[in-house]
Amino acid sequence: MHLNGISLKHNKRTADSATVPVPLPESVKLPMSQHMGAPCEPLVKAGDAVKVGQKIGDTDAFMSTPVHSSVSGIVTAVEDHLLANGKVCKAVVIESDGRQKMSDEIYRPVVNDRESFINAIRESGCCGLGGAGFPTHIKLRVDTDKTPVDSLVINAAECEPYITSDYRELIEAPEDVLDGIDKVMKYIGIAHAYICIEDNKPQAIEDMKRRTATRDDITVVKLKSSYPQGAEKVVAFSATGRIIGEGELPANKGIIVMNVSTAGFISRYLKTGIPLVERRLTLDGDAFGTPCNVKAPIGISVRKLIEFADGSVDDIAKLLAGGPMMGMCLYDFDAPITKTNNAILGMTEKWAVRNEAKTACIRCGRCVRACPLRLMPTEFEKAYEARDVERLRKLKIGLCMNCGSCSYVCPAKRNLAEINQLAKELAR
Amino acid sequence: MDKLIVSPSPHIRSDAATAKIMGNVLIALLPAVIAATLLFGGRALILVGVCTGSAIIWERLCNLVMKRPDTTGDLSAAVTGMILALNIPRSLPYWMAVLGTFIAIVIVKQLFGGLGHNFANPAIVGRIVLFLSFPSAMTAWTDPMLQPEVYDATTTATPLVSKAASYSDLFLGTVRGCLGETCAFALLLGGMYLIAMKIISPATPIAFIGTVAAFSWLAGEDPLYQVLSGGLLLGALFMATDYVTTPVTTLGKIIFGLGCGLITCVIRFYGSYPEGVSFSILLMNIVTPYIDMLTETKPVGAKKKEKKDKKAKEAAA
Fold first, then answer.
1. What is the ipTM of this complex?
2. Which domain holds residue B225?
3. Is the CB of residue B114 less than 8 Å away from at least one CB of chain A?
4. Is B66:B171 a contact under the CB 8 Å cutoff?
5. Among candidate residues A210, A242, A272, the one where a domain is terminated
6. What confidence tens digit (pLDDT) does each residue in B130-143 have?
7. Would the CA dihedral through B23, B28, B33, B38 be positive or negative?
8. Which residue among A272, A305, A330 closes a domain?
9. To the nearest whole number, what is the mean pLDDT of chain A?
10. Residue B69 CB neighbour total at 10 angstroms
């Protein structure tokens, strides 16, 4: 058994760029919906004074995590905010007083068992930092009596071009990563952890191997650099050889997949009690004069980051949150950074605009060979054009992860990944 | 920029392109074209030019008449023309060659919707129509200019019929036959280039040639002789590997090759035509949609629920 992949130019030119903090912005905008799941209700109103780490949004909904202020200052507005996915949620706008006073709510969480650990993770506002943003406490709340989980897969593949923020976590905070892994293993009761790193990061692999040399319960897995090696199903398969099937969560196969930066954050939170109010991002793209890795408060506007990376908004034709394969286009320079942003890529017109005409499918089969899950994008396209829902379901459209490999390899420049997403919605 | 570009992912594309693929096929055909010129002289080269040129012109005319964008740039018409040229004898009148490309490009390809929509290989149909319409002109063989000393000039048949050529003649192409089919060396060179460039999968040619060799051995024929003579290598490497008219998956390609091999041998050994390669490919082209249907990939992690549901439904009914 082997999952297909494609080779991409890595463009990891920020790999050696140590993380630097960005200057404190005058204001931040904190959307109440920053990841998968239910949005939070704002707990503050215009005029309220807030401090760093203070909870400003929460909900009773199960599938959610609270939002905390990333600055100290005054709430200037609670307003409607249009998200990249087209939905509208509330957002809290806070003007910073520049003093970054810590909230009195911050205390080192008392964790002594599974329940208190999971509750602490929920209170930290933690969600998957790799991009998809599944609330971490939900991931951990798996009923281990019903579905025994024996493997913790730490995803440090970082298979998207340009992005190096997870790599910098491995290089700058390896102790945190290992401590976070230990804590998850201890409190959730997981016997074995796999730290999965692509072989284009030899330094990180060496270092992690050295640090875990005496550990029988942690394996460092050297993954082949192949896209989409970091996709949840793919990395879980590479580490454990188990296939996460249709409609299954990794937990159904005894696996919890966690991003490496999330593991590092869990360790730091348990030590300090500071919730998720800042994160590391890679700033890159041909419109940026100084590509770099930064630590930025959640809610800072992208415009500030563009300035920090010596980019000009006049040069940018395409602004991506995430990598070039799966990243989302931002349409507003004033969009705020959210918990799940691992990179901002600023691209010039030269990079972003291609004069490649879509031509007829020549049935070369490259998309079929590229698909990691052996789906048939050409058949999806035909079935979608015929609006044949039954056929789409039979072809397993629901399995498509939107990795984009099919579109990438297509010599006829057909928008297969885009059609897949439309077809997926149609067949839902 | 006044406005940011918003588009769905992925935001990067590989440099693969249809024109590049077709360009590589043209490169892979060059050894056979050079061999044809050396073996059969300048007229062979002119025929290649006439076929390739007329194929491009027919394609462009169709574009104009049908008010469609210019598709000559994808080079697929040039490939069809060049392959057809390699499938005709040296002495074929030019007008017949042009008629062949008309059949291939206008009738078989463009009337069915152009590149990607034709169900049969245009060059194959072009060759078959010429062969059935002008049987004597299409089998008027010329002796190659470079003749080995032992060459039997009195034989009027191709080596497939005479069974008198040596392996080295067949390998170098110093025998009678269509322009591009005699020189096995040139064809193998081109085929290996296509496989090395990952333009074609080796599955089809291996299955096709392997089946012919195995069938020949079982039928008491010389397998190597059967493989090297006639249009087998040209067909297996360049025509049975056409993307549009052959199955997509590797299993499908193997089935396609097996079918081609079987039909070729049945026609060669038991039929009234000496050669069956083009008929075999055409017949397999026709069943390709069914092969595709039967060889769809099995998605990783798919649940086999539907069968149970069906059975349950049937039981309920």
1. 0.91
2. 18-150+160-294
3. yes
4. no
5. A272
6. 999 999 999 888 88
7. positive
8. A272
9. 94
10. 10
